[in-house]
Backbone:
């Protein structure tokens, strides 16, 4: 498992600001958000639509650059680096899970996992073991279009876990799942946290919030609770 050796939390955001400007309009999407997630911990982030949750995740993942503040992943600064450097750090340290599973349609489930591993470089688990972890060993050769909703969600999780990430970031991953499938996905997140991953889940689901170790609510770009 990825080990954080620096003594810092697996994920740390300090005083993040993000502004969007279009014409005369300025949106302050993040106004000084700080948070940490320790390895082994699940943090849920809630908040109404437009409160900045997706913007926060994008900054944490290095997909976007904050206008102020900094992000540290596994003790390494992610923010204020070139896009290429951020992409390399993300591929190595971060798994990302979205509601619309992050699967490439013309590749099999196993090929999707292998692709994420090739981009990550470094030590990655065997694709078979990643698929077994999410209970999809028997679906390795299937294309995404051949999967049920619940299987597609688990395949997306397999891709997110393919690089054995220190940090897993999920944006409303259970939004379109039925109750039983949601519980199964939550069990998988919990068991991955138990293996030392720091998990941050954006969700409106009461079940997700109930099973998190900690919850923070965003309101208008700030931490409200
Ligand atoms: P949430 O995920 O909580 O619904 P978002 O982070 O998507 O919220 O959005 C926060 C605010 O920032 C919203 O007002 C949204 O319209 C605005 N916003 C997000 N991304 C952009 C962008 N690329 N350009 C302009 N405004 C944006
Ligand atoms: Mg969002």
Residues:
């Amino acid at each position: 498992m990825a080990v954080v050796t620096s003594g810092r939390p697996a994920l740390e955001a300090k005083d993040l600001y993000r502004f969007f400007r279009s014409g005369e309009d300025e949106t302050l999407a993040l106004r000084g958000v700080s948070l940490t997630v320790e390895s082994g911990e699940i943090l849920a982030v809630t908040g109404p639509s437009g409160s900045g949750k997706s913007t926060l995740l994008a900054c944490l993942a290095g997909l976007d650059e904050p206008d102020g503040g900094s992000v540290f992943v596994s003790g390494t600064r992610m923010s204020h680096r070139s896009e290429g450097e951020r992409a390399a750090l993300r591929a190595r340290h971060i798994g990302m899970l979205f509601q619309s599973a992050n699967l490439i349609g013309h590749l099999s489930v196993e090929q999707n996992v292998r692709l994420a591993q090739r981009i990550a470089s470094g030590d990655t688990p065997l694709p078979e073991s990643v698929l077994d972890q999410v209970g999809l060993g028997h679906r390795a050769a299937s294309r995404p279009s051949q999967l049920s909703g619940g299987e597609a969600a688990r395949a997306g999780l397999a891709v997110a876990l393919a690089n054995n990430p220190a940090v897993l970031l999920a944006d409303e991953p259970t939004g379109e799942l039925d109750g039983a499938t949601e519980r199964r996905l939550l069990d998988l997140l919990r068991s991955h946290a138990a293996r030392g991953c720091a998990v941050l889940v954006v969700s409106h689901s009461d079940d997700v919030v109930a099973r998190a170790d900690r919850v923070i609510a965003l309101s208008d770009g700030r931490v409200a609770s």
Summary: Residues 11-223 form a domain with the Rossmann fold fold (CATH 3.40.50.300). The radius of gyration is 17 Å.
